Amino acid sequence: MRKINRKIHVARRHGAENVAIALAQKVMQFPLFLVYRGERWHLRGFHTTNYKKMAVAFAEDVPGGLDVVVEVGCGLGEIVSRVHAKHRFGYDIDPRAISWARFLQRFGRSGVDFRVGSFDTLEQTDLQDIDLLITMGWFHYMSDEWIETRLRALLRIKRVRYILVDEFPYQRGRIEKLFDTIGTQVEQRHDWQDDKILFLYRCDG
């Protein structure tokens, strides 16, 4: 009963139109889910996932505007494809997710350059200046040492103005403490749906 009440509450918060869009997209996406053998969380659509909406809104509020935006762990690109920037890149280590994202882009014409890879791949690209680096929904899987090592390696060779990252409730304080040693916290916002905290950090001084 509690789960049902929770779903009703979430649906009301998102609104009937968003719920209808999300359900329709889930039906249309399911065959692709089978074709590309994706993860089930890929079916959790943008219109009823609050942290994705927050990430896009956060990106729009980044001071100074956005020329180059990169999302590492982009999945199907539901966040990066909605951010307004001249150049957008989406990286994911799952080649099936990238293939799926590229297929969807044929219809949406978002102009995102989807690539297979992660931080190590990004380090090797010719991109030198990144206005916003988005890393949502996966840092909690990684060790502190891995995160710090990879980020510091990236920041040594690339100019990254801002990083957008999230922190899960069961690890409250962990990501914030780690990133406080890497950049300067600009703002944090709470996600009512998943109880996550989204942080924006400035990393270029």
What would you report as the Rg, rounded to the nearest angstrom?
17 Å
Count of individual helical segments: 7
Strand order in the largest sheet: 3-2-1-4-5-7-6
- Biggest β-sheet description: 7 strands, mixed
Shape: globular
Distance between the termini: 50 Å
Tell me the total number of β-strands.
7
Class from helix and strand fractions: alpha/beta
The residue-averaged pLDDT reads: 91
Uncertain regions spanning at least 5 consecutive residues: none
Q: What is the ordering of alpha helices and beta strands?
A: HHHEEHEHEHEHEE
Q: What is the helical fraction, as a range of percent?
A: 40-55%
Determine the strand fraction and express it as a percent band. Answer: 15-25%
Outline the secondary-structure elements.
Elements lengths: L1 H13 L1 H20 L14 H11 L7 E5 L14 E6 L2 H14 L4 E4 L2 H5 L5 E7 L8 H14 L1 E9 L6 H6 L4 E7 L6 E6 L3
Parallel strand pairs: 1-2, 1-4, 2-3, 4-5
Antiparallel strand pairs: 5-7, 6-7
How is this structure best described in words?
With 205 residues, this protein is of the alpha/beta class. The protein is 40% helix and 21% strand. It contains seven helices and seven strands, in the order αααββαβαβαβαββ. It has helices at residues 2-14, 16-35, 50-60, 95-108, 119-123, 144-157, 174-179; strands at 68-72, 87-92, 113-116, 129-135, 159-167, 184-190, 197-202. A seven-stranded mixed beta sheet has the order 3-2-1-4-5-7-6, sandwiched between helices.
